[in-house]
Specification:
Radius of gyration: 77 Å
Shape: rod-shaped
Largest sheet: 2 strands, antiparallel
Distance between the termini: 238 Å
Number of domains: 3
Oligomer: single chain
Structural class: mainly alpha
Strand content: 5-15%
Number of helices: 4
Number of strands: 2
């Protein structure tokens, strides 16, 4: 059995039934077990103008349609504009979410920074006050030490000067006065020694002369006495 031409009455309602489409009803046909190459598959279409069926390759048949031939319904077709709009909205939503999150986080960080600035400023001010107080205390103490050192140095210098060269008449309280007194005493001692030496020499001469006179007198008296006793 082969198809030559099918008139319109053959396409009336219920004109095509399962038994007519069974593979046994068409010579040389077999059942379809898989999707073959579309270019090797054909379908029959009714041509209204010629009131007949025409054979057309499946790929040509399906390739002749576009989305313009079908209404979208609930599933919208993909277009660059729709994709860009959807992506742009997703990006805008993500940016809005991230902006909100970042703004909140930045607010928290700014609050922490402000608190740290306040704390650090107070601590630095306290340190500056403590340093200023310590500088004042140290300067005052250093000035007192310097003044005390200068006073002690002046007093020590005066004492050294007094020891070396004081010439007041209150007491022998300086080396100069001690040396002068020693020299004066030495002069007196030397004069006394010389005077004593002269006196001793004079006394030795006098004693010697007296002893010699006594010896002469004793010798004369002895001679006289012996002469008198002999008579």
């Amino acid at each position: 059995m082969s198809f030559r031409q099918i008139k319109s009455p053959a396409l009336a309602d219920k004109a095509v039934i399962d038994t007519k489409l069974d593979e046994s009803a068409v010579q040389g046909q077999s059942s379809l077990t898989g999707m073959p190459d579309p270019s090797q598959c054909f379908t029959l279409l009714y041509d209204v103008g010629s009131d007949s069926l025409k054979k057309i390759a499946s790929d040509d048949f399906f390739g002749s349609f576009s989305t313009s031939d079908l209404s979208e319904g609930n599933n919208l077709y993909f277009t660059d504009a729709r994709a860009q709009t959807a992506v742009a909205q997703d990006i805008a939503d993500a940016v809005a979410v991230e902006t909100s999150r970042a703004t909140t986080a930045e607010g928290v960080l700014q609050t922490a920074i402000d608190a740290e600035v306040t704390r650090a400023t107070a601590a630095e001010q306290a340190n500056a006050t403590a340093i200023s107080n310590e500088v004042t205390r140290a300067t005052t103490r250093e000035d007192a030490i310097e003044s005390g050192y200068q006073s002690a140095d002046a007093a020590l210098s005066l004492r050294i000067d007094n020891i070396l060269s004081n010439t007041d008449e209150t007491a022998l309280n300086s080396l100069a006065e001690i040396v002068t007194a020693f020299q004066d005493a030495d002069d007196v001692l030397t004069a006394s020694t010389i005077a004593n030496s002269t006196a001793i020499s004079n006394e030795v001469a006098r004693a010697t002369a007296a002893e010699s006179a006594n010896a002469t007198a004793i010798s004369t008296e002895t001679t006289r006495a012996q002469t008198a006793e002999a008579d």
